[in-house]
Amino acid sequence: MGLLSGVLGNASEIEPGKAQADFAQLLIQGERVEKAYQLIRDSFVFTDKRLILTDVQGMTGSKTEYHSIPYRAITHFSIETSGTFDLDAELKIFITGGTHIAKRFNKKLSIYELQTVLATYVLR
Question: What does pTM read for this prediction?
């Protein structure tokens, strides 16, 4: 991940194999990572069963909160592509109860690939 990209709040992609190993303690048997992204210290991982969000807390980063959101809890989602002067794309995920999550992506990443992963699992 580029430092400037991270400072600007844009997520960078993590190799699924690396994320599979890094999140092995959280995954159930047979669960596989489809896509993973990192935003400075925090990350979000799309598996074939759920979305996992990590929130690294404190100055030292020794405390981490993990959120697990099953795809069935996602009511809808939207993507916003980057434009000529807008250098980032955005993903919004709306969860049962009215909560939503918004993440920005570097123009180099394909927001369409992520949309396909979400559509594959949310629209089942």
Answer: 0.78
